[in-house]
Give the backbone structure.
Amino acid sequence: MNKPLRKKSFVKGVKRGGEQNALGPLDTFLHASVQAIAEGDTERARGHLSNAIILQPDNPLLHGQMAALLIEEEDYDKALLCLMEALKLEPSNPKWFTSIGTLLLQAGRPSDAVGFFEAVYQLDPENTLNVARMIHTQMDECNWVVHEDRKNKLRILDNAPAEGDRFPTLLYVDDPAFQKKRSVAWGKKNAAMVKATKKFDRIPTKDRKIRIGYFSNDFYQHATMFLMVRHFELHNKEKFEVFIYDYGARPADQTRHRVIDAVDCYRSVNDMKDVDVAALARADGLDIAVDMKGFTKGGRLPLFAFRAAPVQISYLGYPGTTGMPTMDYFLADPVTVPKEGRRHFSEKILYMPNCYQVNDNSRAHPEKKPTRADMGLPEDAVVFCSFNNHNKVTPVEFDIWMDLLKDVDNSVLWFLTGEDKARANILKEAAARGVAADRIVFAGRCSTPDHVARLPLADIFLDTFACNAHTTASEMLWSGVPVVTKPGEQFAARVAASIVTAVGCPELIAETDEEYRALALRLATQPEERQALREKLKANIPTTPLYDTEQYVRDFEALMEKAIQRYDDGLKPDHLSLAEGKV
């Protein structure tokens, strides 16, 4: 999701308001507010802006700017009141509808937000930002009106590619050229606002440890750390000094303590500005900065525009290009980014020899396991499972899934979502395809240990297409559940194929919709084959690359060494792998 309005947006709006009103006292308060923002004193800024509103209470722009300040402070209720006042003053201005929807989306209320975006689509259909956020909220509700008139919506997004959020479009369309255009446009727009550091006063790494820093807000019990915490523990401390830059606001938990204990330096930087975080990393003497968020929620890509290190790498969090001229590398593997796929990245590719995804092989299988009855599942049914985030599901996959339910007697679809509107829409779509509501069993959200404990109850995991299962795919395989997948074109659509290849089960990859359906149907109707696959997975988990964390970390470190050595040799970034010869 896009960040709230920042200083630059605020200044632009204030100038416009000052020029429009040309009132001395008003200008005084406005410019004093701008100065307070520049100094990071939002409380003083609000005071000056309140005075400006007293002078001119009928100016909707002032109420909008006050809302922007309150959003910065995450005071969403008061910000909403300000935006509602602006809308009251300008009831026909679609800007305020979009602003209210955006605020509600940012406050975690997508169901309340969607109506505002839909209203603007009628008033101002070419509004790119609004279309992007309408798509986001409709997909969050499994409201598949989002796929109607899709060609026109994609045209609108393409007309202003720098506008709107990047991540939701990965779920909406499998088109890596389209995704890259949007990311590059955003990257250019962002780069124009900052001045990147180009020179570093440093000693080459040949005779010293490499300093590597990881940047994220997910250093807690989060899906990313579920994969990665063992990675930090296995880093070779004879070769690497490991730094953490944590811009999360959550209290510490057991996972974070594991990370802190494993690294050389942990820094909490949540309250620091992007430019200051980058400066801190440079002062720490980082050689390599690893961004683990990209365009996902809470990401702070702009700090990499300032350059936190001589070599900057996009890794694990966002399954696509950042489009940033200052992001040097993207870590992938030959399945997720084949040679012909490189053109869809602004970064050069660092090729892991097996799967790009790390896993934690030290975790134990849950001792306490639920029964099917505990989960509301029929004891003797074939359980198809969709445990991807529900906003990844589109009518294309769902058509196949409903056909499978009709073809396989005594089968159910175990569907993950805790959202009431999403559940209602899924049941509506099932009914439209002739499938009764009792064939869909919903799974709610729960703790990570409880979630992992229930996974073996499924028989077959059905993957989504435009954006595959990532962490979920490796969790399913680790639990002995076959993952049926179909690779697409963009990185996000090829992840599960990489994961099942790394666990030695390429037979789970289908090349077409028809093959995908046939493979799932065969596994559902051939229990002996299904059981053989389960036994193969159990045998392969400890013997194949997917869960060989030690080898993964050694390969990862070898790529990091090659990347920083290339910089020390005065060479520009290039595609790199551990194999001999040209990549």
Summary: The longest helix spans residues 549-568.
